[in-house]
Every structure is written in structure tokens, then in C-alpha cells.
Design a protein that fits this description.
single chain; 7-stranded antiparallel beta sheet; alpha+beta; 12 strands
Length: about 260
């Protein structure tokens, strides 16, 4: 964990209408991630748990961009080695943030593979930090599907990048920027965003000051809105950030 950064966090999850919960979350020691498994039967649960187990080695170590890429590649390789049962290969999304240090500045390092999401709320305004790796997201970017139609599109759950997929290599999206007091990070599986628009998520985050209350309420509202998929939410608040002696410059990096 980076010295001088004090965080407060909470996790809430529910299997919703599914028989099992294939989501796995980690929220401690400066690492906050959610993995949404897929593959049928128990394969998705195994894949998401394995991916998070591998990525948990980033907790408490202030990793570099190269460290995160290497660990995500290792998670991808390990999930690909899982046995294939039936027609679907086990796989999982992975998204979240790890607290690190760059040029003497405490930073959030956002990582993403798949269509789970990481957000930041600053000054009461919610911003999606990750880009969905999905067919529908690509169609929206190409102007072939309207943004408002995307949540109802029949291929909205078809992901184009996933840990454990057929390719031997996966390229995670990475983004780094300074931690500021008052930052609220939200990491979630698509069970939340399938049924709650960003505006509603923002309203709940504004209304609930403590991460525990916010995470619990978001899951409750997703269930009340008819969530059919597993719902997992991690909420992290930056409570205090002490400047590192001799620090200077900016730390905005994206890959």
C-alpha cells in the first residue's frame, strides 16, 4: 500500500436470478477488482476466482504499468489452462484499480479486460473510466447503434476481449492518474449496469456517504430493477492523501 493514502471501501454482491454467483471481488491492501466469470455450470466461478487469485499479488506492492500487464497476462494464461467442459471455454472479465506510485505521486492505476466497468465520481459527477470490450460497444462507437438502444441490444453480452479466451495474448486497457481526496471509485460487474443507468448510479452515490451503504443500496436497487445476472459492486473512497516528500509533476498515463 502506498504510504500516505488512506482509503475506505466496501463490497456487496448477489447472485440475483442465477443459480450461482460467478462474480469474484477483491477489496483490500490497495487493490479493488471485480471479475465476472463465464463458461456455464461452475466454470465461470472457477475462472473469476482464479483470475482474482492471480491478480491479488498486486495488492500492497505499488506496481508499475509493466507489472500489471505481466500479472494480467499470467491470469489470462492460467484461466486458458482450465479444462474445457462442453462447448464453452471458461473465461472472465477483470476490471478495477490498484493504488500505486508514479514519479513520487500516489496514483490510481485502472485496469480493464471485458465489459465490467470502473467509474470515478468527483464533485458529485460520475465518469466511466473503462471502455466496454463488447460487440455492442463497438457498434455504438461506429454509429451503428444508438447509445440509448445499447442496453436492450440482443448481442449486448457478447464480449470481444476476455481473460481465458481463445487468443494466447490479451491486451488490458491501463490508465493511471493521481489520487485526490474525495475521489470515489466504483468497480462493478455488468449485472449492475444492465439494469441501472449511470444517472441512477450517480444519484445513489451522492445520497450515500459511506461506501458500505452505497454498495449495499446499489445492489438492492439492481435487484429491485429486475437484475437477471450476478450483481457485484465495490466502492472505494480516498479519505486522505499525504503528499510524498519531493514529489512533483503529473502522472497522467494511458495505454
Amino acid at each position: 500500500m502506498v504510504a500516505g493514502v488512506r482509503l475506505r471501501s466496501a463490497v456487496a454482491t448477489d447472485q440475483a436470478a442465477r443459480e450461482t454467483n460467478e462474480d469474484t471481488a477483491w477489496a483490500q491492501d490497495g487493490l479493488f477488482v471485480v471479475a465476472d466469470g463465464m463458461g456455464g455450470h461452475e466454470a465461470g466461478e472457477v475462472a473469476s476466482r482464479l483470475a482474482v487469485d492471480v491478480v491479488s499479488t498486486l495488492a500492497g506492492v505499488a506496481p508499475s504499468l509493466e507489472d500489471v500487464t505481466r500479472v494480467v497476462q499470467d491470469a489470462h494464461r492460467r484461466v486458458r489452462e482450465l479444462p474445457v467442459e462442453g462447448e464453452r471455454r471458461p473465461g472472465t472479465t477483470l476490471t478495477g484499480v490498484v493504488v500505486t506510485e508514479h514519479a513520487g505521486v500516489a496514483c490510481w492505476l485502472v485496469l480493464n479486460v471485458g465489459d465490467s466497468r470502473t467509474y470515478r465520481m468527483v464533485g458529485g459527477m460520475l465518469e466511466q473510466l473503462t471502455r466496454d470490450h463488447s460487440e455492442v460497444a463497438e457498434l455504438v462507437e461506429q454509429g451503428l447503434v444508438a447509445v440509448e438502444d445499447a442496453p436492450r441490444h440482443p448481442r449486448r453480452h457478447v464480449v470481444t476481449r476476455v481473460l481465458g479466451g481463445g487468443a494466447s495474448w490479451v491486451d488490458p486497457d491501463l490508465r493511471m492518474f493521481p489520487v485526490s481526496v474525495g475521489d470515489r471509485m466504483v468497480v462493478c460487474s455488468d449485472g449492475l449496469t444492465d439494469v441501472l443507468p449511470d444517472g441512477r448510479v450517480q444519484a445513489v452515490l451522492r445520497a450515500e456517504r459511506h461506501p458500505r451503504a452505497a454498495a449495499d443500496r446499489l445492489v438492492r436497487e439492481a435487484l429491485a430493477a429486475g437484475a437477471q445476472d450476478n450483481v457485484t459492486v465495490v466502492v472505494v473512497d480516498a479519505v486522505a492523501v499525504t503528499p510524498i516528500a519531493g514529489a512533483g509533476g503529473r502522472a497522467d498515463v494511458a495505454r
